[in-house]
Amino acid sequence: MSIFWSDIVHQLTPYVPGEQPQISGLVKLNTNENPYPPSPRVLEALRAEVGEALRLYPEPTGRALRTAVARQFGLAAEQVFVGNSSDEVLAHVFMALLNHGEHRPLLFPDISYAFYPVYCGLYGIAHRTVPLDEQLGLNVDDYLQPDAGAIIFPNPNAPTGRAVPRAEIERLLQARPDTLVVIDEAYVDFGAESAVPLVNDHANLLVVQTLSKSRSLAGLRVGFAMGQAPLIEALMRVKDSFNSYPLDRLATAGAIAAMDDAPYFERTRRAVIDSRERLAASLRALQFEVLPSQANFLFVRHPAQRGADLAAALRERSILVRRFDQPARIADHLRISIGTDAQCDALVKALTELIGETHHAAV
Ligand SMILES: *Cc1c(COP(=O)(O)O)cnc(C)c1O
Asked: Which CATH class is domain 16-37+263-362?
């Protein structure tokens, strides 16, 4: 605390990301990073961009990357906004599109991406959480609330990994044409149905994606949003009131190469999906309850083990997974990012020993 702080700083409750410890030999399954390196074409593009041109500011509208993204999705560049990570894109979305006053709260799930309430705090946005069902599933009917100012949820949801079919999202868009619906598709490439094909028919849809997970580029910080031109214009207005050049020349070059390398993207996302199904089967064999996941992580619980104990014991064996204290309903769950098969095997081996040990102790 300091007398120099602006008033709002005293009120903020910042987001706490998963830890990034510098421990060698760590099996790091706590922040949903991709276990595979970025496409070799990305690294090539980055090297080619290192040069004298770094003296100059980049092109301010992100035109070249917006065009590359638009090409992938069959959209126009005017329907794409790009930013320095999808977290930053989301921050602009919250400010530009999700604040409709005290009496029209923003709705999002009670168990979801923990950054949403943080943005609400930063921008003073009224919000109301909507409970997931008993199986931690999301039902779009629960969002048909007459006073909703806007709606946001991840699909697949985080940290549950459960997905809503595109037809359900379309039903929500049709039922509430005057309410903006933002779908955060950070994990969509691992098996869920994207809402992007609905963009041209629905003025009330905005879809946000990131290169951090399915394109193995968490370190490059690139995200984007897709929607009809008036929504993109609102985001551009906020961006140009904040930072004219959010994407540097290196990030732009790497991101374009990543979007254009479809074969590498297909191969690595398929490998993650296959490892996920293999790991889910191994964990079920250890009596874990494993939610069906369309993401690059599993959300699991063991009926006879405390989540905090398991996470701590794994950490002692240099294996990191993520756990959440709040809400209490998920305090015993572990969120396990999908690693390589070798990393998943190391996890299963450690859990087999741990559960065996505590089983013995209890007898
Ligand atoms: C990881 C994640 C993001 C943020 O991705 P970045 O582009 O790395 O900022 C956004 N939303 C959800 C639900 C995520 O899990």
From this structure: alpha beta
